[in-house]
Amino acid sequence: MQFDVSTLKYDEKGLIPAIAQDATTGEVLMMAWMNAESVARTLHSGKVTYWSRSRQSFWVKGESSGHVQVLVDLRVDCDRDCLLVSVNQTGPACHTNRRTCFYTAVRDGVEVELMAPEV
């Protein structure tokens, strides 16, 4: 059966959260938003495409930085309101030049930095 992007549950702005995960290590890299068109573009091209809420436009991950995400697998959660995008990541995933956007943790009530930016 052909996948139909309209079967996903989008929010009132037509968006669905997408969690990017490294296909090899399982590391959670980032979370961004997609709409029906960006999901379709991702599936068609194999290049992960998100919707930028601030710019109100599509962005192919890595098109300006070179830190691309190549789609390995796209999974839909049980409620159909969140996506897990398994990717082959080139370079850092975070715009802060870190491997992952989840580079801080709260430990014993204190926020600590887990990794420095890559050079």
Description:
- Strand 3 and strand 4 form a beta hairpin.
- The chain is mainly beta and 119 residues long.
- The protein is globular.
- The strands form three sheets. Strands 2-1-6-5 form a four-stranded mixed β-sheet, covered by helices on one side. It has a two-stranded antiparallel ribbon with strand order 3-4.
- It is built from one helix and eight strands.
- The N and C termini lie far apart (45 Å).
- The chain has one helix at 36-45, and strands at residues 16-22, 28-34, 49-52, 57-60, 69-76, 83-89, 104-107, 110-113.
- The model has no long low-confidence stretch (mean pLDDT 96).
Strand arrangement, major sheet: 2-1-6-5
Number of helix segments? 1
Biggest sheet architecture: 4 strands, mixed
| Terminus-to-terminus distance | 45 Å
Runs in which pLDDT lies below 50 for 5 or more consecutive residues are none
Task: Work out the helicity level.
Answer: under 10%
- The SS-based structural class is mainly beta
Shape descriptor? globular
What is the average of the pLDDT values?
96
Number of strands: 8
Strand content: 35-45%
Rg computed from alpha carbons, rounded to a whole number of angstroms: 15 Å
Order of helices and strands: EEHEEEEEE
